[in-house]
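Retro notes (design track)

What went well: tokenization of the new backbones is finally stable.
What didn't: we kept losing track of which sequence belonged to which structure.
Fix going forward: every design gets posted as structure first, then sequence, in one message. First example under the new rule, 153 residues:
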């Protein structure tokens, strides 16, 4: 049902109630509540646009890949082109040398419409981690020189 059809039905209902009994007269029917959810291809495109926003910026942590949205659109069969970058469950592995890219493909369906969509995912390289070892002298004072060790990668 389109929004226009919903408005016509709301007007018809208002006229019917007004005609048959003044005590049931509805002064104003909110058409906003009668709007239907997106369906078919439009719902799938909307879901794909929402998912693409998850991957606009390089990832620094794992993500939860959606399976269902408010329109009843389902996202199934997530597949990664490189499980060492991002898994089909959304878990990432950060490289210490460079940003890495992979493609996630998912089947999005709503009603009788179904289509595979692909998204390029960039996983940001990890910052190196250093460990500083400080040795105190006998007076428990910090010496001027300490040792810094790269512990990752």
């Amino acid at each position: 049902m389109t929004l226009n059809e919903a408005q016509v039905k709301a007007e018809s209902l208002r006229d019917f109630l007004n005609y048959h009994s003044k005590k049931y007269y509805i002064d104003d029917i909110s058409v906003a509540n009668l709007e239907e959810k997106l369906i078919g291809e439009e719902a799938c495109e909307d879901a794909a646009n929402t998912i693409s926003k998850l991957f606009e910026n390089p990832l620094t942590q794992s993500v939860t890949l959606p399976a269902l949205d408010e329109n009843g659109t389902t996202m199934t069969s997530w597949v990664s082109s490189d499980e060492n970058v991002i898994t089909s469950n959304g878990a990432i592995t950060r490289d210490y040398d460079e940003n890495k890219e992979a493609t996630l493909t998912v089947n999005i369906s709503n009603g009788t419409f179904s289509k595979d969509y692909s998204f390029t995912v960039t996983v940001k390289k990890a910052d190196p981690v250093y460990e500083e070892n400080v040795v105190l002298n006998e007076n428990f004072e910090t010496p001027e020189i300490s040792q810094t060790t790269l512990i990752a990668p």
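Added context from the reviewer: Residues 20-35 have pLDDT under 50 and may be disordered.
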